[in-house]
Amino acid sequence: MFSGVGSTFRGARSAVVSAVALVAASVGLWTAALGDTPAARAAAGVPTPDHVVVVVFENHAYSQVIGSSSAPYINSLKTGGANLTQAYAETHPSQPNYFALFSGSTQGITDDSCYTPGFSSAPNLASELIAAGKSWASYNETLPSQGSTTCSSGTYARKHNPWFGFSNVPTSSAKTFAQFPTDFTALPQVSFVVPNLCSDMHDCSVATGDTWLKNKLGAYATWAKTHNSLLVVTFDEDNRLSGNRIPTVLYGQQVTAGTSSATTYNHYDLLRTLESMHGLPHAGNAATAKDITGIWTS
After folding, report:
1. CATH code of residue 173
2. Dihedral (C-alpha) 153, 154, 157, 161: value to the nearest 10 degrees?
3. Could you tell me if residue 43 is inside a domain?
4. Is the model's pLDDT at 180 over the cut of 50?
5. CA nearest 250: which of 45, 85, 81?
6. How distant is the alpha carbon of residue 141 from its chain centre?
7. Nearest to 266 by CA among 295, 288, 241
8. How many CB atoms lie within 10 A of CB 102?
């Protein structure tokens, strides 16, 4: 009798172990399908804003903006948000940095020449967002018309607009800055704003760009502070005199006010953080970069 009971118990135990193994295997397959890798899990270290707006200015070193009386508005964002004190661009001149920030690679671009539209099909922030069913747009000041691939027009320059280099990003997602919504709930989940050659401090002063930012995006920044949204202000490169150290300020509801980080970050780290916020894969060098941490409220 006891041997029968033992046999029955062993059979039941075996069935339980098999069931547990089956569940574990199923969970493993399920998480693998969702991309549960160390890189994907890093997304837990950053918030998920409803809207992110990234503004890119031009050719100024950290010390030319942060602490400068010429940039009172950017410095007010620093005080109310987070300041990355050791943020760096990748290279010189401008154009390769924009590709690095947008796609994790300079895509072979080494100068500011006008490239052929759609020359690359490499993964990038916009293509990843679109593939994940999330929304994306760029807002380009002085762009002649939505989707225009012209190289230059007045104070507009395509060299600052890397999205046109990718066949997997619809040109229609490149909008004029006049199309930036006044109802901020209508913004896509992630968008880039590119001022023109004067507003971005390239041809005009730091004070001009700072005033432009306050006038054009100050209302969004204020709104973001109470609507789970984020404003990122960064630069493409420095003035070639400061080791490519650039200003980068983050401002929004999930940013701890008055924080700063002395961790060294670059364009690839910022791209990775934007991707991680939405559980996206990591393009190019963002795969081996790090998320921006230590500045978030949770």
Report:
1. 3.40.720.10
2. -70
3. no
4. yes
5. 81
6. 19
7. 288
8. 28
Q: Residue 18: pLDDT above 70?
A: no
Q: What pLDDT is stored for residue 45 in this prediction?
A: 87
Which range of residues forms the domain containing residue 77? 49-288
Domain count, the chain: 2
CA distance 87 to 76: 18
Q: Give the max Cα distance, the chain.
A: 95
> Do 170 and 137 form a contact (C-beta atoms < 8 A)?
no
Residue with tokens 């991707």: 275
- Tell me how crowded residue 14 is: count the other CB atoms within 10 A of its CB: 10
Q: Phi and psi for 276 in degrees, rounded to 5?
A: -60, -35
- Altogether, the residues listed in the chain come to a count of 298
Would you state the pLDDT for residue 298? 78
Q: Which amino acid is residue 161, in one-letter code?
A: N
Do 89 and 235 meet the contact criterion of CB atoms below 8 Å apart?
yes
DSSP character string of 18-69: HHHHHHHHHHHHHHHHTT-SHHHHGGGGS---SEEEEEEE-S--HHHHTT-T
3-state secondary structure 145-177: CCCCCCCEECCEEHHHCHHHHECCCCHHHEEEH
21 and 61 co-located in one domain: no
